[in-house]
Amino acid sequence: MKNQLKGILEEELKAIKALIDILEAQHELLVLQDVFKLEAITKDIDDCSRNLARAEGLRRSLTGKESIKKIVEEVDEKEITRIYDEMVKAINALVIQKETNELLIKQS
Predict the structure, then answer these.
(1) Which long-range contacts (CB under 8 A, 24 or more apart) does 13-16 make?
(2) Which residues does 43 contact at the CB level (< 8 Å), separation at least 6?
(3) Which residue stretches of 1-108 are H helix?
(4) pLDDT, tens only, 68-91
(5) What is the C-alpha separation between 57 and 94, in angstroms, rounded?
């Protein structure tokens, strides 16, 4: 289970980072008010969100209803803990970027 969990967490982290990159690109387009490119990037955001949801679904099918934080603590493996900690930081960055973009959209 440890190897499966590690692989799934790595995939989920990769999807989170990809979504952050796209949201940062969206932010730049919002600042530039490039409406045409903004419309095009929406598909990329949707695709990335689907990839993230798929990775999360894989993790949930492996872990069930158990909290991922609790599982990471119970597994007690440095690499899994590192990936999990990086995921938490990335999710926080993702939320901030998403909220910033939403604020810019409302101001437009």
Answers:
(1) 13/83, 13/86, 13/87, 13/90, 14/55, 15/48, 15/51, 15/52, 15/54, 15/55, 16/52, 16/87, 16/90, 16/91, 16/94
(2) none
(3) 2-32, 35-63, 68-75, 78-107
(4) 999 999 999 999 999 999 999 999
(5) 19
Residue with tokens 């590192």: 82
How many CB atoms lie under 10 A from the CB of residue 89? 12
Determine the structural domain holding residue 21 and report its residue range: 2-107
Please, which pLDDT band fits residue 22 given cuts at 50, 70 and 90?
Answer: very high
Closest among 63, 64, 46 to 6, alpha carbons compared:
63
pLDDT in tens, 24-72: 999 999 999 999 999 999 999 999 999 999 999 999 999 999 999 999 9
**Residues 48 and 24 sit within 8 Å (Cβ to Cβ):** no
Number of structural domains in the chain? 1
Q: Say yes or no to pLDDT of 108 above 90.
A: no
Query: Under a CB-based contact definition with an 8 Å cutoff, are residues 71 and 2 in contact?
Result: no
